[in-house]
Design goal:
Helices cover 51% and strands 0% of the residues. 20% of the residues are buried. With 88 residues, the protein is mainly alpha-helical. The longest helix is centred in the middle third of the chain and has 15 residues.
Length: 88
């Protein structure tokens, strides 16, 4: 994965992935970057699969990391950091 591809993973990217109402019913399209977000295990698995398919970034977050994936911004930061980019 290139640094350019990593830098393109933004809160907007994550929001776009979360927009699939079949997987994430009830999430508003205008979800704020820092709004509290709780993903179930299936939703998280789907999100990580989509990131791998689109960006070639395969990550397996630890339990502690999963607990920290509580907003659109935190998910984007985690993905950039996991891929070796500057996430924060």
């Amino acid at each position: 994965m290139t640094t350019e591809a990593l830098s393109s993973i933004s809160p907007d990217t994550v929001r776009e992935l979360l927009a699939d109402s079949r997987i994430f019913p009830g999430l508003p399209a205008d979800l704020a970057d820092d709004a509290e977000l709780v993903l179930d295990s299936l939703g998280l698995l789907w999100l990580l699969h989509e990131v791998e398919q689109r960006y070639g970034l395969a990550v397996e977050p630890t339990y502690e990391e999963v607990a920290g994936l509580s907003s659109v911004r935190r998910i984007a930061d985690f993905l950039r950091t996991a891929g070796g980019g500057n996430g924060r």
